[in-house]
Amino acid sequence: MGKRRARGPALAGLSKRQKRHLRDFGEQHPVRDAVSGREVTQICELPENSDQSSSESDTENESERVSEYHKLLALLKTVPGTEEEEDEDESEEGDESEAESNSEGPQEVGGTDEEDDESDVLGQEEVTAKDAIKQALGQEQADETDNSGDPKHGAIEEFTDVKHESEFSLETNFMEEESGDYSTAERESSSSQEVSEDPYRAHMNKELEKKEIENISACCKTTSQLKWPTLGQLVFSSITQKLKTFKPDKEMDLERLHLHKPLDSTWPKVNNQLLSMLNKPSDSPFTLLQRELFCIMNLYKDLLYPERAPLGSGEEIRQTYCLHALNHVLKANAQVLSNNAKRRDQKLGVDTDDFRDQGLTRPKVLIVVPFRESALRVVQIFISLLESGSKKQIDVSNKKRFKGEFGSDPDEKPPNLKRPEDYEAVFAGNIDDHFRIGVAVLQKSMRLYAPFYSSDIIIASPLGLRTVIGAEGEKKRDFDFLSSIEILIIDQADIYLMQNWEHILVAVRNVPMIGSINHVVVQLPHVFRRLESDSLVSVIDARFQFFIDKVLPEYRDAVMSHTLIYVPSYFDYVRLRNYFKKEELNFTYTCEYTKKSSISRARQFFFKGERQFLLFTERFHFYKRYTIRGIRNLIFYELPTYSHFYSEICNMMKATNNGEEATWTCTVLYSKYDVQKLAAVVGIERAAQMLQSDKSVHLFVTGENE
């Protein structure tokens, strides 16, 4: 054993609270001296001429002051007792999980808690004061020059609001019954006819007919030309819809538009402000151009409008697509919150497809704009639409920070600069082109800088999107937040030709065509085996029979030990567990109802190879997220409900790396009824090829050769 280093004399008499204060603030608590127990007053003598003080003297004094402080800090960082106080509030389950995790690996015998509290870390190299000074000074300089909120410095460090996560969660919030905008009575009294006429409901509840599916597969597209009063010559192209059913509305009645509250009352006021600025008549809530554009948007038709002009219709178009985007988000979130309330009041164990109201990820709308000024105007329109006419303003988190980062300083513009009018319109305000921001809207509150996976709307520039999406081959990439985008808005597209059009192509290719298999980092062959079934009802039995006849026999050999079977459905899990018991197979199991002690034993048995199989439910992973060590073979009895669970489970295999990667296997069962889940894992293009192929087995290999 190495010799225990003596505790620094400056730390001998400090309590845990004083140590933490010293570590956080770099000085002992000013009220009381921990060593002498008496009050301390520090006297600083200033030079007679402070304005002309020597820079050398300042440097020396700063070096001495930092040196003493960081000597203490370096010693303090090696005392385990300071970290223990922060971990006292950890849950008992977390401690047990950690203990289980430690028990699975090699054990190390250490001293008692008292000895650890009174000693420094053993066996580590001593941190010199010089190294501590360099490290701490570098950190202080980084903190002092942290200009993440300043667009002038490129916003290198992104700010993300994690403070309001629970307030804006769709999983834990419910519909406000007392709110006039969201009254239960109003929702219940609405007739089925009104619901069917709602363009949002009609779009989201649309089920393709067999003939329409055949047309899509054969790409049978009909193209015709239409003449509309304001848009002029219109090229209409469709696979599923007949031409005669698509006509512009002669009169724009707000009630017929089915706008979600409060948009039906705020839109006329917000738009009238714009019309008065543009010197246009405000007798109608829409201009002629807005009326026809919104008619197309509100019916969820793809739209390409190449006539946008910075000096003409730019702001009219911006307000129109902002209305459509916000209307879509409010309706989608209201449906989720309403279903949350219904599920809360419903009996346990009862489930229905009516509650399936969300995609794989939360973001629903992606708005691509070229400059921060454009993003600022979009957010300002959102805020106006939510609070216009109401006595109480909505709660917008991080609003001040947003204005500071996306706003502009009028003094920055040269006073005598003269440019053409179109230049002034395009390059007005903050023209930084590297940004991205998540926006969450819940009832009467808005959250700016929300994490992407907790956002409803993502506003970004092409460059801002490209830097987070990355390029193929890069290790740090993230694009799954785009997997459930329902509305894509690309504004001022002509400007991207002057920036980098490739960034747009990359972003569009990832909405939503990627799969979570791209996040698997271990070298692993993935064998996807398609099973046949005549109907959605019979696929349950067909999967079970396929598993016990075709898959399980291949894994019964003792060589195929350490096999984890991932089962999304609890009923399938019970069926498999009963079958394994009947066949007297060497297995163990964990589910959401398993006791902690049984979970610990099951993980230990599996890790040591005492049990060949581990039945593992999806709900257990959802609630626990334990890392299962010892996996050598994976079987996905069914594709995961959450696509990112696929990569998470596969990447658990790297937790036990004993040079056996060449023998690892992964088998996935799927049917033609798993289209959405399959596309979320392998990507849309691969899924289409796999379902249309005559072959029932497909192989993908992830990871790189070392």
**Overall residue-averaged pLDDT value:** 74
Low-confidence stretches: 1-7, 31-67, 75-130, 132-156, 177-193
Report the biggest beta sheet as strand number plus sense, adding barrel if it closes.
7 strands, mixed
- Which descriptor suits the 3D outline? globular
* Rg for CA atoms: 31 Å
The secondary structure category is alpha/beta
Helical percent range? 40-55%
Bin the strand percentage: 5-15%
Number of helices, counting only DSSP H or I runs of 4 residues or more: 27
Strand order of the largest sheet: 11-12-10-13-14-9-15
Distance between the termini: 36 Å
Number of strands: 15
Structure description:
By secondary structure, the chain is of the alpha/beta class. The protein has 27 helices and 15 strands. Helix 15 runs antiparallel to helix 16 (399-406). The model is unreliable at 1-7, 31-67, 75-130, 132-156 and 177-193 (pLDDT under 50).
